[in-house]
UniProtKB/TrEMBL annotation:
Source organism of the structure: Tersicoccus solisilvae
InterPro entries cross-referenced by the UniProt entry: Glyas_Bleomycin-R_OHBP_Dase, Glyas_Fos-R_dOase_dom, VOC_core
Gene3D superfamilies: 2,3-Dihydroxybiphenyl 1,2-Dioxygenase, domain 1 (3.10.180.10)
Lineage: Bacteria, Bacillati, Actinomycetota, Actinomycetes, Micrococcales
Protein name listed in UniProt: Oxidoreductase
Occurrences of domain VOC (ranges): 8-122, 140-258
SUPFAM superfamilies in UniProt: Glyoxalase/Bleomycin resistance protein/Dihydroxybiphenyl dioxygenase
């Protein structure tokens, strides 16, 4: 196996036009903690995660600002930067000291579709805590899923340049690719890419402590008046539970738990037929996947491609 230089997913950063409403939703209802808040910018942490923050919101037109990933150390970070330079990846800035919560050292690039990726290391960890039994708040950011108008090309960029590996794929009954689940460590996926009509955010997923906390969290969000798009259920790919909601800004966000951790020496990817109910939901408790559900997850066209965010 090729040595991976990317160690794990750190955070997602979104720009939203209804900043105060979105900020209040993620703090009051979703269960995140504000660690730094300025005018039009907030960094939100998960109580169970040592990451300095797992979600950043910025007041602006709707877009994915960036996705942050980590390397184990500066040696790996510089090796990754050298590799990406040699492969003619477009840099936004070179390795430098970072000024965000937790600090650190890192660089930013555009991926093949124009999304901004940040790679960092040597940042200060946050004092986290064990989430209590039945406490319905996220433990950490689980994964980020993109829509792409070119599924094959988008996924191949992560494979070629970042050494991600396909864990499983969703396909049509005629074996046409619909979604690839990509991993950078033993977690089944940290990034996934879905075939869509345009480039956009498909969803952000937040890990809960366990099934009980996941169900209580889902009930809490429903009682807050938030619309559940799909769930509750349990996927086949990744073996994780799912409950998808629509945030006030119209982004799909997920509570999940028990994402599969793989033995990479023995794992073989599967191609799962989405026409089989068990592919989408092993339990059969969620409504069947429909065009209405898919349309919500297509989201609005991301207008931020190949445009670096101001922070």
């Amino acid at each position: 196996m090729t040595e991976r230089l990317v160690s794990h997913l750190r955070y997602a950063a979104l720009a939203v036009p209804n900043f105060e409403e979105e900020k209040n939703f993620f703090i009051k209802h979703w269960g995140l903690t504000a660690v730094q808040s300025d005018e039009g910018l907030v960094h939100l942490a998960a109580e169970g995660s040592p990451e300095p923050f797992i979600l950043r919101l910025r007041d602006d037109e709707k877009r994915i600002d960036l996705v942050g990933m980590a390397t184990k150390n500066r040696r790996d970070l510089h090796k990754l930067a050298d590799k990406l330079h040699a492969e003619n990846v477009t840099f936004i800035h070179e390795p430098q000291e970072l000024t965000q919560p937790g600090g650190g050292y890192g660089f930013r690039v555009f991926d093949g579709d124009g999304r901004v990726l940040e790679f960092s290391t040597d940042y200060e960890l946050r004092a986290s805590r064990k989430i209590r039994e039945r406490e319905p708040i996220p433990v950490k950011l689980s994964h980020v899923v993109f829509n792409s108008a070119d599924l094959a090309g988008s996924a191949q960029w992560y494979i070629d340049h970042l050494d991600f590996t396909i864990s499983d794929s969703l396909v049509t009954p005629t074996d046409v690719d619909l979604m690839h689940f990509l991993r950078c460590n033993r977690n089944h996926h940290s990034i996934a890419i879905a075939q869509g009509p345009h480039h956009s955010l498909h969803h952000l997923s937040f890990e809960m402590r366990g099934i009980e906390e996941w169900m209580r969290g889902s009930g809490k969000i429903l009682r807050a008046g938030t619309r559940m798009i799909w769930g509750p259920g349990r996927h086949n790919a990744g073996d994780n539970t799912f409950a998808y909601f629509l945030s006030p800004a119209g982004n799909t966000i997920e509570y999940t738990t028990e994402l599969a951790v793989l033995d990479e020496d023995t794992w073989h990817p599967s191609r799962m037929d989405t026409s089989l109910m068990s592919t989408q939901d092993q339990w059969g408790t969620a409504a069947e996947m429909s065009e209405l559900v898919a349309r919500e997850s297509f989201n609005d066209i991301d207008e931020g491609l190949f445009v670096a965010p101001p922070v």
